[in-house]
Design a protein that fits this description.
Elements (H helix, E strand, L loop, with lengths): L1 E4 L7 H12 L5 H9 L10 E7 L2 E9 L12 E7 L8 H15 L4 E6 L4 H4 L3 E7 L5 E8 L2
Antiparallel strand pairs: 1-2, 2-3, 3-4, 5-7, 6-7
Helix pairs in contact: 1-2
Length: 151
């Protein structure tokens, strides 16, 4: 799998918008994903950035580095979000490749830590992420926050 910053592969823009939306969106928020991704193409900004994993010209995974993952902890950034590997490509190490790529990209962009929120149990702990605290979504749901050093 090769991992690309989406702004380096504008030929994949429309397919990537659909991929991210189908993985994480719902029937009412396609425009949200489209607008976020299209506005990530600004080369002067370090984040937000969207990344795709491609193998044999097929999109098999994704992640994003963003300023906030729609939760109350506006004081923390950047966030790793939208990590996804298609079901038939799981258990091949691709998620770990995407996570490591994200940590490296955050480091290159000058960040000492990377944060994420999840409801998964033990997945990120096995990858060396530590529980950092909690935050709250717009709807009031409590979310677990994880942190990992990029150094």
């Amino acid at each position: 799998m090769k991992i690309f910053e989406l702004s380096d592969r504008p030929d994949k823009l429309e397919n990537s918008i659909n991929y991210f939306w189908k993985c994480w969106g719902n029937e009412s928020n396609f425009n949200f994903y489209s607008d976020c991704i299209k506005n990530s193409f600004n080369k002067e900004k370090t984040i937000p950035k969207f990344y795709i994993g491609i193998e044999s010209d097929e999109m098999i995974g994704s992640y994003a580095l963003i300023t906030n993952d729609l939760l109350s902890r506006q004081d923390l950034m950047p966030w790793l979000a939208c990590l996804f590997v298609g079901e038939r490509h799981r258990k091949k190490g691709y998620a770990e490749m995407l996570l490591n790529h994200g940590l490296n990209q955050a480091k290159i962009k000058g960040f000492e830590h990377l944060y994420l929120n999840t409801d998964l149990v033990n997945f990120y702990e096995k990858k060396g992420w530590a529980k950092y605290g909690k935050g709250f979504s717009f709807s009031g749901d409590e979310l677990k926050i994880y942190k990992k050093s990029t150094l």
